[in-house]
Design brief:
Helices cover 42% and strands 17% of the residues. It is of the alpha/beta class and 112 residues long. It has a single domain, classed as Udp-n-acetylmuramoylalanyl-d-glutamate--2,6- Diaminopimelate Ligase, Chain: A, domain 1 (3-Layer(aba) Sandwich). A 5-stranded mixed beta sheet has the order 1-5-4-3-2, with helices on both faces. Strand 3, helix 3 and strand 4 form a beta-alpha-beta unit. Helix 3 runs parallel beside helix 4.
């Protein structure tokens, strides 16, 4: 399932759309960026409410393809600019992390 397919299936808004529409291989849900650095896997999605530039830096370190921001959090321009520079997709949803994690798990499990 590609990033754009994930966004459509989650009814999420693509906020930063300068990215390669890569396959999403999994996901990690956390608001603690050191936890993301230690445990997230290559090519996955990061599900979080951490809407700031450091989230993009961490996503770059662990090769995250897409950052999914939950709870309709506002997105600062410097975060979106950094994501564009790194070609990382940023999508936003009104749903919480628990709901998004469950939906994405079901979507990715169905495509295996």
């Amino acid at each position: 399932m590609t990033i754009r397919e994930v966004a459509a299936a989650l009814d999420a808004e693509i906020v930063q759309d300068e990215f390669e529409d890569a396959e999403v291989s999994g996901a990690y849900t956390s608001d603690l960026l050191s936890d993301v650095m230690a445990n997230a896997k290559d090519g996955g999605a990061l599900i979080t409410i951490q809407a700031h530039k450091n989230t993009v830096a961490v996503a770059t370190l662990v090769n995250i393809s897409v950052i999914i921001i939950c709870n309709s959090r506002p997105l600062p321009d410097d975060m979106l600019s950094a994501a564009e520079d790194e070609c990382i997709a940023v999508i936003r949803t009104h749903e919480n992390q628990f709901t998004v994690s469950g939906k994405l798990f079901a979507l990715l499990s169905a495509t295996e």
